[in-house]
Protein 1
Amino acid sequence: MTPREALLACGASEAACVAADVRFLREAGECGYAAYAVAAFPYYAGAQEGNLSLYARGIDYHRAVRARLRAAAKLLGLAEYREYADASPFREVALAAAAGLGVVGDNGLLITKRHGSFVFLGVLCGDMQPDRVSLPAAGCLHCGACSKRCPGGALGEVFDETRCLSHITQTRGALNTAQQALLARADTVWGCDICQLCCPMNKAAEHTDLPEFNSNLLCDLPEDACTLSDRAFRKKYEDRAFVWRGNAPLRRNFAYKKAY
């Protein structure tokens, strides 16, 4: 069984290997394995109304993707390996593009053929036999829709995270006046999907069939969830991606919305 076959068997929509000497791996100081397999796991389950970003409505993707990577490693019989999902030494989007999983869009996200940019990325590193595959081509139209629709104007020649609504909702502490106004106008209290939902390459994105991301969805976080103690909040929502910062940013976000 090849790495790609194992990852597809464990829920990836696409997977491919990159050579151990690619620049992204050298930069990360990670060139010690025979193969680095990059996998895309789709999460789009529709765009129902709610105050949580689409990516945060299912099970925490860090734990879900890593569990599937570990299952693939077991299928491959790897005694020693590493698995990463988001928190990694790699620039995962660039690595996935180098592997041929898709192209990097103007919003900085990977665009895949079947699922658009609605994918989580995972990397499995191990002494595997790398497989070479030719994947369906994806593309970015460079139409400017994402930069025009970005509510904070964060997308330009250089990405400005201080104007990115998704980033702002997840930061700790006080916000400046412009950030407060941006948050008050937003539909979400955690994350933002505008640059993805307006992208023409996402119009025909297939729905995920992964149960972690298409069932037991929490689309709308009630404000009273933030009245819980931080410990109680973390325990109640321990399997959700938005819990990693605790409830302080969310409490602040709800407060700014009420103040405007």
Protein 2
Amino acid sequence: MTLSFTYLRTTNPGLHIQRQLPIGQVSRFGRLLRNHPLLWMLFCLLCSAGTTWSQCFTVSSTIAVGSSPVHIVMADLNADGKLDMVNGYYGIIT
């Protein structure tokens, strides 16, 4: 199972930079989540309360759960090009 993310640069409304990355290349923690999709869903649900939408980079992904797609958003808080996967800035858009 490969989960793909799309990077969107949101600081300039006229400029959108997109690229695809497998979740396993995002971080070592991503490899664990890639192999356990139910753990991934639980993690995102638990972290959704801390989501912020005003960061320079957001990452969105769609995962099919049964017949319902779930959109997941993550943020790069310090704009270093790496996702901050430990601090809880995750969310689910329904």
Protein 3
Amino acid sequence: MATLLARREGLSDPVPVTQRYPAFPDSDESTWQEQVVRHLELANWVRLDITPEQSDLLGADARAGLRERGVIWPPALQTKGSVLASVGAGSFLGGEGGDEVLGVRRPRPLRTALAGGRPSVGDLRAASASVAPRPLRERRTLARLLRSDMQPWLREDFRRQHFRLVAADQAAEPLDFVGALAWLQRRRGSALAAGNFRRLAAEYASTITQPLLAPAFTAAVARSTHRWGYRSRTEAMAALFGDCLPRAVIERRQKTMFNRAYVGEGSRTFAREWDGSGVDHDLVDAERLRQEWLADVPSAISTVMLQSAWLASQQHAGLAPERPDA
């Protein structure tokens, strides 16, 4: 969209800045990046090969960021300093929010069931669940979370309390697509991430905007379709970007993972040597948390505590200042 707008207004083409992770095949997006850049016929392209040290949430960049800024959300922001420094000052457009805006929202099962044709039993059950009263949806979500293996490092009482809050938050999502996208704008996690990314970019004399999370964009997306939204991510991508992206990208189903790239050798060394300090043992089982950090594919949710525990160890040793988290 930025390219089409620039050309329409007679401006210079935007310059794509992409990151590649040669050491981590499950984080490789180079094929998709190349297809988009080639399709748009962009002459300039900044390609950054990210080393395991640069992507590690306790690599040199991240450690310096933690000492300077404290713990921030999301944890991966601490790894972006060298990227911003290498490309220099400028105005950037990011892609945060795509999963939230174009992914499964509460009204989608209803849209699928009403799309025409004979819905399956599964479609009808999902649609019924989406229109159930809020207390019932909250109870069902809580039960599903408690049955899952999510966040096993939390003590049982606290895990239940935490999941109760998560269930209440999810049950608050409105049924109509306009309301669901407006609700996304109010979620604390999204607002924190966007705000912290802006502050980080400002440290490098740059600005960054996340257009997919902009209220004007989400309102336009909501107006572009049925009251219950799109039937699938592919349908949404085709409707919104079908005239400017290659079909293979529109129909892409693979999901890239960065868990291994973010929890590299620096993080694993700390996890192996960690003495359990820096977390509240009334709330957290330190040994289960260590096991998560050392897992083949560590949970991204656990990495906030990874950085928090490391920073606490540095503060205890007098190697980092005490500061509030953001």
Protein 4
Amino acid sequence: MTEEELVEYFKAQMGKDPDMASAVAAIRTLLEFLKRDQGETLLGLRESLTAATDCLTGVDSSVAVSSGGELFLRFISLHHWSTRTSPDVKKVVLRVLEKAAAEKKRFSVYVTESQPDAAGLQMAEALRKLNVPVTVVLDAAVGYVLEKVDLVIVGAEGVVESGGIINKIGTYQMALCSKAHNKPFYVVAESFKFVRLYPLNQQDVPDKFKYKADTLKSIKNCLRSIL
């Protein structure tokens, strides 16, 4: 499987469902890569999969792709290829709320817009279909609405070795506001989101996990043109 085919398959998986986590798409792509790989040794297989993971990280530089690749490498074996993984593609926070709604729990939700991709609007629409009362608020209005809520739930792009999380911009401010208001702050994440990374502070997080691959490439191109 060439790099072009690998990237094309990954993008096709992401295109099938906009809500699919990039880590899930990466794992499915690596499974397909595994089916086509002709490696005969475990060492050769691991090297091929590592190179494939690096290739996918170049397409989508999120920490979820990296952690998904690491998890996949951790459990590969030369036998029993019939074993498959089929993780749920829905957002984990939405799944938690869906479960609560299914159990007839009574609650309402404040959802931030989550700009720039407005992911919060999509979640709000999904919650309305479940007949859950939902209010969409500006990202900057978190501090204002927190005095009205009982708890805060967020997802995570990655869970690092210190127990901290890497997530969309704005999560840190939300956590600080929650602490100031003495509100419980919960993080829900899939097991494949755990990543071997130990950033010491916000600035220590590698750039490849902060920005999209396209953004990093644009920055590099701009620097080259300046130099």
